[in-house]
Amino acid sequence: MTTQSPAEKIFVALDYDNMDDALRLADRLGDTIRTMKVGLQLFFKSGPVILDRLHDMGFQVFMDCKFHDIPNTVAGASDSVTSHGVYMFNVHVGGGVEMMRRAKQAAITRAESLGIAVPKVIGVTQLTSTTQSVMNDEIGILGDVGESVISYARLAQQAGLDGVVASGHEIQGIREACGSDFLTVIPGIRPTWAEANDQARIMTPTEALRAGASYLVIGRAITHADDPRAAALRILEEVQASEGAIS
C-alpha cells in the first residue's frame, strides 16, 4: 500500500450552494489539503466548471454524486466524469455488480484514451446518516447495519471497484473481508471539538485512522470553522500524531 502524507488522507467536503464560496474556502486551504470533495449541491449549482477551477488551483477532486442507475447509464456517467480528470468518484453498491463493473471499465477505457490516470471508483454502502431502525424499518433491509456494509464491500470488490465509502465503525470488518489494500473512504469524521450535526455514525480522525481508514472526509469541522485554515492544520496535526502512535 502506498504511504500517504496526512494532507493526502483528508478530503474537504465543499458543501456550498455556490462556486464563489467554495473556491474562496479552497483558496484558504491551498497549502494544507490536497483533495476537495464536490457533492451534488455544488455540482448542480456550478456545473463541471467547478471541477476545472479546482484542478487549475492544483487540487485533486473527489466527485461525490453517487451514481445509481441501470448499468449503461452509469457507464456513460462514469465516462463523462472521467473525462474531467477527477481523482475519485463513487457509485451506489445497491445498483449491483454489473452496474459497478461497467462503471469501472468505462473509467479505465476513457482514461486510457485520454492518457490520464484512471480515477478510483468507490462504492457507497450505507450512508452515515442511516441508523439501524432506518435501514430495517424504512429502507426494508433486514439485519445489522455493519453486516450490510461488509456484504456491500464484498460486492464492490467482486465488481472490481477500488474501495468503499463507509462509516468508521465498519473499517475493521471491511479490512478483514476485503484486505488492507481495499480503500475505505470515511465520512462522518468529527474531531472531539466539533459538533456531530446530522450524521449518526461518527468517529474522530484518530479513531478512524487507528481502525485503518484510507481517507477521511471532513466538512463542517473545517468549512464552518471561524478560521478554516487553522482548523485544517489542527486536524492535520492530529492525523500526524495518530500515525506516529500507530507506527
TrEMBL record:
> SUPFAM superfamilies from the entry?
Ribulose-phoshate binding barrel
Q: What is its EC number?
A: 4.1.1.23
**Which reactions are catalysed by this chain?**
orotidine 5'-phosphate + H(+) = UMP + CO2
Q: Which UniProt keywords apply?
A: Decarboxylase, Lyase, Pyrimidine biosynthesis
Enzyme active site: K66 (proton donor)
Q: Which SMART domains match?
A: OMPdecase
Q: In which pathway does it act?
A: Pyrimidine metabolism; UMP biosynthesis via de novo pathway; UMP from orotate: step 2/2
Specify the enzyme's EC class, one word. Answer: lyase
**Any idea where the Orotidine 5'-phosphate decarboxylase domain is?**
9-235
Q: Name one GO molecular function term.
A: orotidine-5'-phosphate decarboxylase activity
Does the entry feature the keyword Aminoacyl-tRNA synthetase, yes or no? Answer: no
Under the heading Pfam families, the entry gives: OMPdecase (PF00215)
Locate the residues binding substrate: 15, 37, 64-73, 128, 190, 199, 219-220
Lyase: present as a keyword of the record? Answer: yes
Q: What does this protein do?
A: Catalyzes the decarboxylation of orotidine 5'-monophosphate (OMP) to uridine 5'-monophosphate (UMP).
**Subunit relationships:** Homodimer.
Query: What protein family is recorded?
Result: Belongs to the OMP decarboxylase family. Type 1 subfamily.
PANTHER family in the record = OROTIDINE 5'-PHOSPHATE DECARBOXYLASE
Can you name this protein?
Orotidine 5'-phosphate decarboxylase
Organism, by scientific name, is: Tumebacillus amylolyticus
